[in-house]
Amino acid sequence: MEIANESNIISELDLRLVNALQLRPRAEWTELAAALGVTPATVARRWQALNEQGLAWVAVTLGQPHIQASGAAFALVSCTADAVPDLAQRMVQEPAIATIATTMGRSRFLLDIFQPDLDGLRSYLGNRLDTLPGVTEVTSLLVITLYTGGQGWRIRALDAAEARHLSTRPDGSAQGRRRSGTADLDRVLIGELATDGRLSWAQLAARCGISAPTARRRVERLLAAGTIALRCDVAAPVAGSSLHVTFLMQLPAAQLDTAGAIIAAMPRCRLAAAVAGPHNLLATMWFSAVSEIVQFEKTVTQRLPDLVVDDRIVHLSAAKKLGHVLDTEGRTTHLVPLTAW
Questions:
Q1: Each residue's pLDDT tens digit, 123-145
Q2: Environment class of residue 329 by beta-carbon count within 10 Å: exposed (0-12), middle (13-18) or buried (19+)?
Q3: How far apart are CA 310 and CA 214, in angstroms?
Q4: Are 33 and 43 in contact (CB under 8 A)?
Q5: Residue 90 CA to its chain's centroid (Å)
Q6: 326: how many CB neighbours lie within 10 A of its CB?
Q7: Residues 202-229: pLDDT tens digits?
Q8: What is the pLDDT of residue 56?
Q9: What average pLDDT does the segment 63-70 reach?
Q10: SS3 102
Q11: Rounded to whole angstroms, how far apart are CA atoms 101 and 318?
């Protein structure tokens, strides 16, 4: 399969490479080459081309334990129609806003908001977000449990044997004691990784003024503790899914974990989380056709009869993803550092 995108072509090898990096974001070139059946030089060259064109990149996000111990929320933002362009540009520059999707319906934007702690989140939602020019209403949904996030979504271009080859030793496998805070050096390391999640240990160490073994040890500890997670993100032409829909749902609290696991296991699922607010379950699905919206609802309500779909939010475009500012084709152009850590 090849996807034309202006001056570049996304080849089958590119798709397989992206899939491999979704499984192992920091795998060595030699490991990737062995799984893909090409040379390390070929793998490195193809990744450099994808990355320089803004079509694929390795980003830093919150690990699940950190999400549940800090401040993470989704926010539905309403505004007047004439305020949409300017408000979008203002929110892109907000370090607390990790991801921005423009949407259809009453709410014009769906945001992912990360703060270092719950107090910071309350302050941002209560004293900052709703004061931005043009905002008329904000509905906040506090993240309680993340069942799956963007790092769990796969392009599925690898065969089963190739996927197993890369899944045998996942990144961040080092065992370490979970820490309650993030040291200054850790924040510097996270900041550098956010610009390029595939910096070599030597490059990362040089940027932070430490040794390569120290850089590796501390990053692997951050990954093992769930303070951060790494994921390979892609532009829209690479993803292939043309319709993104977020479902806001409600069901008895005792069934939340079961529902989260069922939805998270669906191949089209990009995100599933238990939330606190007007709804208690949120899921974002990446579909190929409008008909899949109804099919998803039929499937999930058959398996979970008590589940009620309260709203369906259709995404129009993405302006920002984990701090990466996107162009109209969904390609990363630059990074706005996040305040999550």
A1: 999 999 999 999 999 999 999 99
A2: middle
A3: 49
A4: yes
A5: 21
A6: 22
A7: 999 999 999 999 999 999 999 999 889 9
A8: 96
A9: 77
A10: strand
A11: 4
How many Cβ atoms sit within 10 Å of the Cβ of residue 5?
16
4-41 per-position pLDDT tens digit: 343 345 899 999 999 999 999 999 999 999 999 999 99
d(Cα 99, Cα 74) in Å, to the nearest integer? 9
Distance CA 312, CA 331 (A): 26
Q: pLDDT tens-digit profile of 251-277?
A: 999 999 999 999 999 989 999 999 999
Residue type at 215 in one-letter notation: A
Q: Which residue reads 């209403």 in tokens?
A: 137
Q: Which DSSP category does 199 fall into?
A: -
Q: Which of 162, 158, 142 is nearest to 70 (CA)?
A: 142
Please tell me the pTM assigned to this model. Answer: 0.90
Q: Sorting pLDDT into bands at 50, 70 and 90, what band is 176?
A: very low
Cα–Cα–Cα angle for 24, 27, 29, rounded to 5 degrees = 135
198, two tokens:
């595939």
Number of residues that this document lists for the chain: 341
Contact 109, 102 (CB under 8 A): yes
95-106 core/surface letters (b: 16 or more CB in 10 A; e: else): ebbbbbbbbeee
User: Can you tell me the distance from the alpha carbon of 288 to that of 276, in angstroms, rounded to the nearest whole number?
Assistant: 30
* Amino acid type, 175: Q
Instruction: Spell 25-59 as b/e; 16+ CB within 10 A means b.
Output: bbbebebbbbbbebeeebbeebbeebeebbbbbbb
Which tokens belong to 56?
């694929």
CA 326 to chain centre: 13
Q: Give the number of C-alpha atoms closer than 13 A to the C-alpha of residue 246, restricted to the C-beta side.
A: 26
Residue 83: how many CB atoms within 10 A of its CB?
A: 17
Among 132, 140, 80, CA closest to 115: 140
What residue has token string 């996304």? Answer: 10
